[in-house]
Amino acid sequence: MRVYLTGATGFVGSNVVRVLTERHGVELFCPVNRTPPPAGAPYDHAVVDLADPAAVAASVARVRPDAIVHTAIWNDFHGLYADRPRAWAAYVGATRNLVDAANAHDAHVTLVSTDWVFDGTQSGAREQTPPNPVNAYGFLKAASELVVTERARCGAVARISGVNGVHWARPQTPRMQDAGFGYLVASIADALRAGRRFRVWEDERLNSIATPTLASDAAELLWRVADGRHEGILHCCGGEAIDRRGLAELAVETFALDRELLDFGAPDWDALPDAPIPYDTSLDATETAAALGVALPDARTIVQRLRHELERHELSPQTATAGGTR
Fold first, then answer.
1. Mean pLDDT, rounded, of the chain
2. Domain range list for the chain
3. In this predicted structure, what is the pLDDT of residue 272?
4. Which of 62, 156, 303, 308 has the greatest count of CB atoms below 10 A from its CB?
5. Contact between 36 and 3 (Cβ < 8 Å)
6. Are 12 and 71 in contact (CB under 8 A)?
């Protein structure tokens, strides 16, 4: 199978690279922009501006993939407000260009989306729950979802949430803590293992409840979506919602860390975006699990698998496709 993967040097994309090449023997082509691939990357690549429809059409025509998996984003929350034309082109325009190219070559297309398409007041949002975003990132992702659902001949939207895992394209944890759940477990483990205190942010103005996803599990689910040419909206996440405090406590227990170094309190507001943040973005993935034939892992299992990946520098042998994980 040949897959055209955007965002291969990003967090989620680097996990898709490892899962698709190591577990499934997929042939990858990955368009890149500013960030070059790491040395020895197991894929062909070329510089492609995803916001340029002609460039995308020509690139996909050369590769002739069986599937396109679109993980790339402009990862600059402040920039989405400062340069709205660029933000629209980077999200909605790029998605449209990839969908049109996929249509031209009968390729399946998967857009990786987010739980932040919801406003944070709907606990356990289902696949059919209408999006109602409260910030620019959620709005741009929701608009991109419409491009896929309305324009793609064979396409899927794969929402992921609270992603924790290893960024295989970078040697260090890229960030410590933000308004979401991403990297939270690895950040806690890094700090407490070094003997540093870590304050887990708690505030009603933060994303405080989510459904954590192990990045490599999300990649495995994305593989199933593409390989099975599934269509519609899917929730490719874990199987249990949890709050920030609960996830932090699980991290301390699972990694055998010093609980006395863990604090809870108000966030550093100057480090956060001046925009609304959805409070409860928990997802119900029951229908997705049934469609993909998987048993989604609970939060404890996700943290255990993450410890394996961080300490052994290899993919966890258990995945979201393994039955009986709940």
1. 95
2. 2-168+214-240+281-296
3. 87
4. 156
5. no
6. yes
109 pairs with which residues across the strands?
Answer: 68, 155
Q: What is the pLDDT of residues 58-69, one digit of tens each?
A: 999 999 999 999
pLDDT digit string, tens, across residues 130-140: 999 999 999 99
- Best CATH choice for the domain 2-168+214-240+281-296 from the list 3.40.50.720, 3.30.470.20, 3.30.420.10, 3.60.110.10: 3.40.50.720
Could you say which DSSP state residue 110 is in? E
Integer Cα distance of 190 and 173 in angstroms = 8
| Backbone torsion region of residue 73, taken as left when φ is above 0, otherwise alpha when ψ lies between -120 and 50, otherwise beta | beta
With beta carbons less than 8 A apart as the criterion, state whether 19 and 83 touch: no
Helices 299-312, 244-254: axis angle to 10 degrees equals 50
pTM: 0.96
Please give the helix or strand (H or E) that residue 45 lies within, else none: strand 44-47
**Contact assessment for residue 174 and residue 183, using Cβ atoms and an 8 Å cutoff:** yes
